[in-house]
Every structure is written in structure tokens, then in C-alpha cells.
Amino acid sequence: MTQRLPPGLPMSWPDPYARSAAACAQQGRGLDRRMLVQAAFAAGGLAAGGMTTGLARPAAAAAVTGDWLDFRRRFLHADGRVLDTGNGGISHSEGQGAAMLFAVRFDDRASFDRILEWTRGALRRPDDHLLAWAFRPGAPIPVPDMNNASDGDLLVAWSLAEAADRWGHAGYRALATDMARDLLRKVVLRQGDSTLLLPGGEGFLKHDHVVLNPSYYISPAFRALARLLPAPEWQSLEEGGVALADQARFGRWRLPADWVALPRGALRPRPATGWPARFSYDAMRVPLNLAWGGHAQSAALRAAVDFWLDPSHPAPPAWVDLQSGALAPYPGDTGLRAIVQLAVATLAGSGREQALPRVADATTYYPAVLVLQARLAWAERNLTEGACSPPARLSLAPAIPTQTGAQRSGASGWLRGIWPATWSAGG
Predict the structure, then answer these.
(1) How confident is the model at residue 33 (pLDDT cuts 50, 70, 90)?
(2) Would you call 233 a catalytic residue per the annotation?
(3) What angle do CA 361, 366, 369 make, to 5 degrees?
(4) What is the pTM (predicted TM-score) of this model?
(5) Is residue 165 flagged as an active site residue?
(6) CA dist 256 to 32, 218, 278, 300, 426, Å?
(7) Secondary structure (3-state) at 205
(8) Could you say which of 70, 84, 107, 151 is catalytic?
């Protein structure tokens, strides 16, 4: 598929590591994807959010009072339970892990410990150190399913590893190591030349195929756990996740599906039976994770940007059916808008940080999580235009006025705020 560029974008994409210290020295030398992953691991997880990045230092007090404080006020219960307000108030390991990572990055140890205590108390499984995936308040059995969710376990283990480094707590490191070991043991599968991440320990291995969720492959988490518990599988998972995202693409726009079936053997992947064949609320995290990991050469990342910037729709739709091509009759929410801006800036090499939405703009839990994750990724990739130095402390932009419908529509509206100031939306 020919790569379509929005007006004013350069005809060649810069090195995806150009905004980090190592990449500034490498800019223009052209590393391929495998070399980039290997370089990241060799450097101790460049831009993975560990002690090798400036983000591992305590965040400035002003930043703590911004988006994290708003997220904590709206979605974190006093007992440490994170409420998914768009899904009946349930809690799940993914939300607990995301909030723990936010607490570490904003140097909020009290919140971190509270979230960890509730998570281990409510979601602990009896036979390993992984977590049951969901808690339903008010139900006769609040945790009816003890299966785990690998993305939630990755986020919790990653945050524990960072917390151990930040606060010098051996107990955090021990638990993170135990979780990393159990992830390798329970949900990492070798199939042919590929290393796969099962979405959970049970229910995803079928007699003739494996069910996968491409959005569960979180590159910075793999790098953090590789430093904690060295094993070749972590790098293989990152490489395999990028390959899966690039190969398992479907429909007119060649986009990844929320859930994918990977046949045993040499057959090509297909959208998994039992879920709508959509690029939707799960798969929108694929470009987020690719951008967070610095994988600007990924075909899946470029395809997502190509779809989102397609002039046939005035704003990115919430989802697209990968079989019929039907689009959601409503635009994506604030979380999607944050991912679009992150993805475009990743391909361009820089962007306007002040154009990123705020947690206050999100109506429910899930878009708020995506907004804050996009902000973390933006800071780690050092994407603010004009920057070419190691990322420092988080610097969250002030809120921007809400745009009108006319301002949001077309290349002259909402897209203008994504591009660097030197670009013109009109060409």
C-alpha cells in the first residue's frame, strides 16, 4: 500500500530514536527494526522507563498536581481499587497496573502501596504470582474467573520493577521478579520461529490455532523485565509483537484487529472468531505501544496514521469493521485522539505537546488511561518539537480550550494542532 502523507509532512521519516540521546548521535544512519530493538536492550532498555531515563527521577511537584492528581481523584478508590467507570465500575488487573505505573512516575508512593495492597489482596491467584483479571463489586463472587490477563500482569510487574529502583525496596523487586518468571512460564509460547504472548493462561490455545491480542505486546515492559530477569524471550517477544502487528492486518486500510487467530503452521493470521473483526478499543493500543517502544518503522503504525488522517472522514472514527469497511457512526474519544497525536508525532519525529488532550478531557476511565499513557510515551520519546536531548522530568502542558466542531473537522481543524509549528495543514 502506498504511504499517503498529510500535506506538509516530510517525504522521508526520521530515525525513530532521533529524540533520545543515543539517537541524536545516530540520526540519519538508518537502523533497521531488529537493530533498533537490539540497541534498546543493549543500552539497558533505552526509553523503556527504567533508571536509564530521566523519567525515573521523581516528577516535579507541579506535574503531580496535574493529570495524575486528576486521574487519582476520579478513578482511584480510597482502598486502592481503580474503577473502570465506563464498564459498570469493575476493576481489573490492567487498570491496577496502569495506575501503579502512573504512581511510580509521579513519585506517589502512598498511592502505589495502596493500589498494590488492594491488587494483591483481591486478585491474587493461589498457584502463582499472577493476577485474576477482573473484580466485580457487589457480585456474590467478586472474582468469578481466576484466569489472568497478560497485559495487566505486565503492567504490574513493570511498575514494581520501577518502584524497586526508585524507592530502593527489595520487596517490590522480589515480587516483580516472581511475576516475570511466572509470565515466562505460563503465557509465553514458542511456535515455529515465533515467540508468542498468550492473552491469558487458559482458553487461548486451540487445537488448530492460537488466539492472540496484538495490543498486549508492550515493548517498554519487556525491556524493563529483561533488566530485572534477563532472558532471551523478552527481546523475542518485542520483535514478535512488532511482527505480529505488521503481519496481522486486514481490510481496506490494512489495520490490526482487536483479536487475532494465528493458525498452527505456515498459514496467515486472521481475525479471531468470537470477537467483532474490528480495529477498535483494543487494537488502538497497538499504535500506542509501537510508538512507546520507538517502532516508527512499523507498517502497522503507519497504516493506523494513514487511516486516521484519511480525508474521507472528518475525524478518526471510533472503530472500523475490517471485513465490511463500515465505520463507526461517531468519532473516537479523547483517548484515541491522544494516540493519534502520539503516533503522528512519532512518525514525524516531533510534535506539539500542548496539543495532547488532558485527563480532564476524558469522560471515563479508559480514555483517561490512554491519555496519561500517551503523555508518558511522548515524554519518554522526547517528541516535543526542537528537543534532541535525554528526556527530563515530566512536563505536562496546560489545558487548552475545547475546540468547536468546525475547528475539529478536516485538515484545517483538529489536525493542525498535531503537526509541528513549521508545517502547514494547507500544504
Answers:
(1) low
(2) no
(3) 75
(4) 0.81
(5) no
(6) 22, 15, 8, 7, 30
(7) strand
(8) 151
